Amino acid sequence: MLGPVLLAAARSDSIRRLVSAAPVTRPMVDRFVAGEQLDQCLASVTTLAGRGMQVTIDHLGEDITDRSEALRNRDAYLALCDALAGAGLAEHAEMSVKLSAFGQALPGGHDLAYENVLPVVEAATAAGTTVTLDMEDHTTIDSTLAVLGQLRERFPGTGAVLQSYLFRTEEDCRALAGDGSRVRLVKGAYKEPASVAYQDKREVDRAYVRCLKILMAGKGYPMVGSHDPRMVAIAQDLAERYGRKRDDFEFQMLYGIRGAEQERLVAQGHRMRVYVPYGTDWYGYFMRRLAERPANMAFFLRSLITRS
């Protein structure tokens, strides 16, 4: 029951102020977010790379309200490209971007988002890395996939994210399972209506497996975004069934979640990519992480009530 409440709270300014001011918040945020500054993020990336892991980096900054914020987010990613190249980390890291951070929800947002993300993809390519377009709520999917299509005309390695809890996702998987296509499959972290998304966890899980079969059987590069041990095991079985070598797909997990499992998969020879967020605009991301993890959610809320 708390999950939907926290997802709604992720967009509340009053709750944002309460959570941000609470003493218990900072240690919890530090678990899921690799610092507010670029140098802190790079330190975490260096540590993970030393453990044999790949990363995908997200500069937090969604739900913007004007074009100047979109430009600041663009510039933050351009600085990240330069920093990765300068630190020799580009071979270990790609970048994840949310088009909402580039102006997608603003007037003329589709063209604006493409205009702002294009130089980031160009810079990433020049630095020797790639970009994956994160997926957000269902109202943005058509625009995001259209931008993806535009980018792939010049940069075919641009990745996409699909969410299994949406009814449309199996068809989207079929469309994106072609040669060279990079697709991260996740279950989904936004509160979606029953008209477009499965509401029952078992249905979401079954849809995830159906989508994963499509991607594993295709000619693209599946990225298995899940912390669920059953989904990890199923992905391993499907990869073997469809003759995929361990460098023909990868696992992805979030920074701060199931670190021991990440280490285990690396030890088995799998490619493991950690989703590393950083930046000052951490609130929405943090609340979604709590909503996904009941134990963390209950602990945080108890502490917040006690200390506030």
TrEMBL record:
<protein>
    <recommendedName>
        <fullName>proline dehydrogenase</fullName>
        <ecNumber>1.5.5.2</ecNumber>
    </recommendedName>
</protein>
<comment type="pathway">
    <text>Amino-acid degradation; L-proline degradation into L-glutamate; L-glutamate from L-proline: step 1/2.</text>
</comment>
<dbReference type="InterPro" id="IPR008219">
    <property type="entry name" value="PRODH_bac_arc"/>
</dbReference>
<dbReference type="InterPro" id="IPR002872">
    <property type="entry name" value="Proline_DH_dom"/>
</dbReference>
<keyword id="KW-0285">Flavoprotein</keyword>
<keyword id="KW-0642">Proline metabolism</keyword>
<keyword id="KW-0547">Nucleotide-binding</keyword>
<keyword id="KW-0560">Oxidoreductase</keyword>
<dbReference type="InterPro" id="IPR029041">
    <property type="entry name" value="FAD-linked_oxidoreductase-like"/>
</dbReference>
<dbReference type="InterPro" id="IPR015659">
    <property type="entry name" value="Proline_oxidase"/>
</dbReference>
<dbReference type="Pfam" id="PF01619">
    <property type="entry name" value="Pro_dh"/>
</dbReference>
<feature type="domain" description="Proline dehydrogenase">
    <location>
        <begin position="42"/>
        <end position="299"/>
    </location>
</feature>
<keyword id="KW-0274">FAD</keyword>
